[in-house]
Design brief:
It contains nine helices and four strands, in the order H-H-H-E-H-H-E-H-H-E-H-E-H. With about 220 residues, the protein is an alpha+beta fold. The chain has two domains: about 40 residues; about 160 residues, NADH Oxidase. A four-stranded antiparallel β-sheet has the order 1-2-4-3, with helices on both faces. It is globular.
Length: about 220
């Protein structure tokens, strides 16, 4: 456990660090917002350009900074970037998704650790919250699935911010992925995401979105 004096010092540093960040950059410019979300697209075809391991490590480091409940960080990721790994993953895919995955430089299996709560003394050191989860499998599953989904979203935005393109996929068998990659572990697959440099000629028109009035309200 962190001492109260240490906690006070760490909180003060966090306050100052955040003030310094906001003094340098209050918001992203519109071009940056377009790149990561507003004009970004899901991609299905890829250029034959490899992604360096250092870039993937940077991608994870950015993703890991995103918030999760109790800093639980349940997501675990396998970066599938070898022919052998791709062949294993192809067993799980619906036929229409095989070419999309095989053509991507990297396909990330976003999974979650069902025993994530055992690491809370490290991840949430100022209070031991393991008792929140012990003996509560439904709560564990819900927390792990929800927060690993969040982390998968952070991964996609971080990849776009680094100049990469992404294409998330759910057309696969979680059971086959789990048998192939996670047998004998406490991990479960959530979804897949192709990452690379897109061949934009495969794009079609952007699909509609709901307006604020259709999707939002005030209370």
């Amino acid at each position: 456990m962190t001492s109260s004096d240490d906690t006070t010092d760490l909180r003060a540093k966090a306050h100052n660090d955040y003030r310094a960040l906001k003094s340098k950059l209050e918001r992203l410019d519109d071009n940056s917002i377009d790149l990561i979300l507003r004009e970004a697209r899901s991609h299905y075809a890829w250029k034959d350009t490899a992604i360096e391991e250092s870039t993937l490590r940077t991608l994870y480091d950015i993703t890991a900074s995103g918030p999760t409940s109790m800093n639980s960080c349940p997501a675990r990721m396998i970066f599938v970037n070898t022919p052998a790994g791709k062949q294993r993953l192809a067993k799980s895919l619906k036929e229409k998704n095989v070419d999309k995955m095989m053509g991507a430089p990297v396909t990330v299996i976003i999974a979650y650790e069902t025993e994530f709560w055992q690491s809370l003394p490290f991840l949430f050191p100022h209070e031991d919250r393991r008792a929140f989860f012990e003996g509560k499998p439904d709560y564990i599953e819900d927390t792990a699935y929800r927060n690993s989904t969040l982390q998968g979203g952070y991964l996609m935005i971080a990849a776009r911010a680094l100049g990469l393109d992404v294409g998330a996929m759910s057309g696969f068998s979680n059971q086959i992925v789990d048998e192939e990659f996670f047998s004998g572990t406490t991990l479960k697959s959530n979804f897949l995401c192709n990452i690379g440099y897109a061949d934009e000629t495969a794009l079609f028109q952007k699909l509609p979105r709901f307006s604020f009035e259709d999707a939002c309200s005030f209370a």
